[in-house]
Amino acid sequence: MIRTYRTEAGACVVEEGPGALERASEAAWIDLFEPTHEEDEAIEKVIGAAIPTREDMAEIEASSRLYEEVGAVVMTTPLLVKSASPYPESAEFTFVLTEAHLVTVRYAEPVSLSIFAGTTRRTPEICASPKAVLTGLLDAIVDRLADVLEVTGQELDSIGRRTFTETERREPLQIRMQQLGRHGEIVSKARESLVGLARLVAFLKALPQMNRSADLGERLQAIKLDIEVLLEHTSSLSAKITFLLDALLGMINIEQNAIIKTFSVVAVMFLPPTLIASIYGMNFEHMPELSWPFGYPLALLAMLLSMIAPYAFFKRKGWI
Questions:
Q1: FRET partner for 57 with CA separation of 20 to 30 A, picked from 50, 106, 217, 305?
Q2: What distance in Å separates the CA atoms of residue 295 and residue 232, rounded to the nearest whole number?
Q3: Which domains does the chain have, with CATH numbers?
């Protein structure tokens, strides 16, 4: 799908489909979502540069992600998507910057893009320049990652409170382990996105065409500082996740040890009665107790006392 953003009569006009392709040459921002081969070729003719395929976007070498070609700068970075889903994902996002156009190529729906699209309607002057669109889009992406990490930090604090302050654990520890694993995925993929964005911004700052405007340079520097702060925050969240994971594993071990201890105490309590019953269950001819009138109740009493004595001893020691 092709979506274009261009300014007309002081407003940002958004078009989709065939109409967008017809006037793509007038658009400062061309957004390609799951483009077909024909759509790629049509936009390549408009901007005069090649559009990376999905296979090209998946390349992990730095030279394949950040490079210049004739008349265009191509930049690819992973972005966190579906952060609110049970299993967050990471998707590649490509920027193709020319003097007249910014083309974004994607195969996922980042929330930050929808937020920025709404911003263009409120501040249409952003659509006037591809470089302004690029810096604004990068700013929106970083802001969205900051919001996701903020929510993740709050949820980790909640898990910590429930783990260390609740006297009665109504929620199984396994559930918290699953929640912790999901938050770990979010932090890991957010860090991956931030590292990619940091490389992209550093690459942009080194381009002569991005340094001609003091305003663009200042915006890129501000984005760079925000990314550095968020990277430090992800390190803090990763350490917190590791600490909570160790704590939950320790509590699971404690619960398992308590179960094993209960079985051990019960086994020891039944051992003396079993010994007494085994002795008087032997088939020897000369066993004087067999002829006692009160032999049977005395054997039962001995077995009962042999159970109470270990229980009292364990109780006094505080083992149960």
A1: 217
A2: 78
A3: 2-254 (3.30.460.20), 255-317 (1.20.58.340)
Quote the tokens at residue 15. 């078009």
Q: Measure the CA–CA gap between 271 and 263, rounded to whole angstroms.
A: 12
Q: Can you tell me the distance from the alpha carbon of 32 to that of 128, in angstroms, rounded to the nearest whole number?
A: 19
Q: Which pLDDT tens digit goes with each residue over 135-158?
A: 999 999 999 999 999 999 999 999
Q: Answer whether 50's CB lies under 8 Å from 73's CB.
A: no
Q: Retrieve residue 104's tokens.
A: 């974004």
**How do residues 244-276 score in pLDDT, each as one tens digit?**
999 888 888 888 888 888 888 888 888 888 888
Distance from C-alpha of 181 to C-alpha of 185, rounded to nearest angstrom:
6
- Residues 167-186 pLDDT 10s: 555 677 788 888 999 999 99
